[in-house]
Amino acid sequence: TSPTTSPTLTPTLSPTTAPTNDPTKQPSSTSESSARPTDPPQPTDAPTDEPSFCFSPRSMVDVKDKGPTNILDIKVNDYVRSGTNSFSKVFAFGQRNHAQPSRMTVIETTSETSPVITLTFDHMIFLEGVTLPVTAGSVKVGDKLASVNEDEAIVVMVTHNVADQGFVTPITTSGKIVVDGIVASSYAGKNGHSQYFPNTGNIFHYHTISHLATSPVRFSCKWVSESFCGDHFHHDHENAATSGQHVFFTVIHSAKHFVRSHKCGPVLHAVLFAAIIGMGLLFEHFFTLALFAIVFWYIRLMLTKNFAPGSYAARSKEKIL
């Protein structure tokens, strides 16, 4: 059975698993039992081309005060749906291109309101009941996607390496965005994996790390000036990997590619990784850290003042001695 995608899409790989006999109906109990809401699926070996974290330009999102909107038409400072009852502000774009060829993973579900979501192999998507997302490339038939609609979105077919044209990645302040009714991450994993280091649980999850890494630009746009997220900080050339990309993400991606190259040894890798995470934690918890610093400074000042020569505390100490 061929995937029920747009006629312009041409699958170049067969589905990773066989679909149900009738994709419009929910799978049998066997398929339902294969869903793993608390056990993220294992990555597959299906390939993907750059860009690695994007949605199809035909995807739809729900913009506050505007309603359903094509994902290419949203702008910085728009508030898009990020959950059933929540909206998040778009502060930057990871990439945005109207015409460059791309390769997508098409996920079809039993949901009548969210029948298909199309995104790149490594882009992450949420499963129902799971706190952190998994890559689109690791989604299997029978998995239940996190949907904001009432009907369940149980996966009936996954097709990789589908030819498409254009791509877009809105980055939100929450790190989440609802695309075609399905809750997705603003970020991507790598080679089908959602963890930076294998078998480390949620500590080194790509979603968590990526959201921390973006905290400097989120902080700057919110507390310094919104101009840091304006058009002049986004690349405007169409035919490049950095098309529509915020310059901050260009720097981060350059650092990422350097870390993964043979030029970067394990020590430098660890130093750069720690620097990015440390910088992220600093900006993510800036005001909390500032408050602790002020309290520490005040306590130290009071102790110094109280035990200064001639103070009551100093005289009391001399009497005791």
Summarize the structure in words.
The chain has 321 residues and is an alpha+beta fold. The chain has a single domain, classed as Hedgehog/Intein (Hint) domain (Endonuclease - Pi-scei, Chain A, domain 1). It has seven helices and twelve strands. It has helices spanning 29-33, 206-213, 215-224, 247-259, 266-284, 286-306, 312-320; strands at 10-11, 60-63, 67-70, 79-83, 86-109, 116-119, 123-125, 134-135, 144-145, 153-172, 176-179, 182-188. Strands 1, 4, 5, 6, 9 and 10 form a six-stranded antiparallel sheet that branches. Helix 2 (206-213) packs across helix 5. The termini are far apart. InterPro entries: Hedgehog_Hint (IPR001767), Hedgehog_Signaling (IPR050387), Hint_dom_sf (IPR036844).
Global structural class: alpha+beta
Mean pLDDT: 77
Quote the beta fraction: 25-35%
CATH architecture call: Beta Complex
What is the tally of beta strands?
A: 12
Order of helices and strands: EHEEEEEEEEEEEHHHHHH
Shape: globular
Query: Counting H and I runs of at least 4 residues, what is the number of helices?
Result: 7
CATH homologous superfamily annotation: Hedgehog/Intein (Hint) domain
**CATH fold title:** Endonuclease - Pi-scei, Chain A, domain 1
The rounded Rg comes to 24 Å
End-to-end separation in angstroms reads 91 Å
Give a short account of the largest sheet: 6 strands, antiparallel
Keywords: Membrane, Transmembrane, Transmembrane helix
Protein name: Hedgehog protein Hint domain-containing protein
GO biological process, one term: protein autoprocessing
